[in-house]
Amino acid sequence: MKAFWKPKYDAALSGKKNEFEFSMDIGNEINYYQVFLNPIISDDIITGVSALSVCITELKKIEQMQRLSETNLKNSQRVAKVGHYDFNVNAGTWSSSEMLDTIFGIDQSYSHNVEGWSKLIYPDDREMMMSHLLDDVVKDRNEFNKEYRIIRHSDKEVRWMHGLGKIEADEKNDAIHMFGTIQDITERKKVEEEVNKTKIHFQKLIENAPDGIVQITIDGKFKYVSPSAKRIFGHPIDQRVEQSPNDLTHPDDLPRVLETLNKIIQNPTIIPTIEYRFKHTNGEYIWIESTFNNLLNEPSVEAIIINFRDISYRKKAEEKLRTLSRAVEQSPAIMVITDKNGNIEYVNPKFTDVTGYTFEEAIGKNPRILKSGHTTQQEYKNLWEMISEKMSGAVNFLIEKEWRALLGICVHISYP
Prior knowledge:
Blueprint: H1 2-13, E1 18-26, E2 29-42, E3 45-55, H2 57-80, E4 82-88, E5 93-96, H3 98-104, H4 114-120, H5 123-139, E6 144-151, E7 158-169, E8 175-184, H6 186-208, E9 212-216, E10 222-225, H7 227-233, H8 245-248, H9 254-266, E11 273-279, E12 285-295, E13 303-310, H10 312-329, E14 336-338, E15 344-347, H11 349-355, H12 359-362, H13 377-388, E16 393-400, E17 406-413
Antiparallel strand pairs: 1-2, 2-3, 4-5, 4-8, 6-7, 7-8, 9-10, 9-13, 11-12, 12-13, 14-15, 16-17
């Protein structure tokens, strides 16, 4: 301890003022003191030394907390890629934090003024940002709040910034000062761009899909109608469909549709598919095949999704087939359909009436069951040549009915 104090005391005796700090461990706690040693002079003679000691322990604690806060601030700014600035409006200059200089790719030698900031801004954004600063913020006293691009000075890389700031005015309401932050949001912008690309991709798929997609709210209104759906029902692509889905559903089919909706509301795990008629803008009803999916509890959707396709052509084909089937069933002529090996696949009722063979007895058999013995081998050969060559034509035969009665027939051969 003597070695610490004596040089300082001797210096004061030699006429030098001495100021220093020291610490002591008192009761397991470090205490800090600031000491002032001054020579006592009387008639130009140094007669002694005056000492003043001030406890500065609390001050030291505050300084330590400030240093810790500054360190934490720098670390948080580095992690968040955000820096702060102080803009002197009258001088047109700004000071910046270490992190902001890093974000801009500059150092203290760079011109920290409005022109210097302007040069950092991406050319396409420069006019917008200068107008925002000078007109919206400085002139109209609005907050500085913009996303914009810069060209980082150090490596010329384009980076996205989000600038915030609040203007301060004097007693004359003239802008004098603005403090704010600037954050590098490049990574966020890249993520947003990828998300937007994905959204556009799926939107294009929906818009160009042949099938229609609609979203129905819980109260039975259209929330979304895809372009394909509008085309199917004859609605203009650029207009909303204001009518209720219930009003556009055929009255005879509406109970089945409502029953299906009620089922998926009660049990969202089922995904039923039904066929029903829906009204076209021309007043006619078209047949659609719809699949229902309850996504009311999905936050990003909150609707019932209905995927559907126009099956009017299929329905018309089915009706034609039924008409043809009725014609065949009611035909006054015998009709037999065989496979490529000549085995019977179908006979109409007239065949049963004329030959006496039932439908079940004839299916799978060969037409030779009708062989009478009065038709020559050459005639059979001619017949099977026509069949093998897929030639259409007519051949006269004498066949034997089930009860061995003979019957003359004219066989017409055709192919689908």
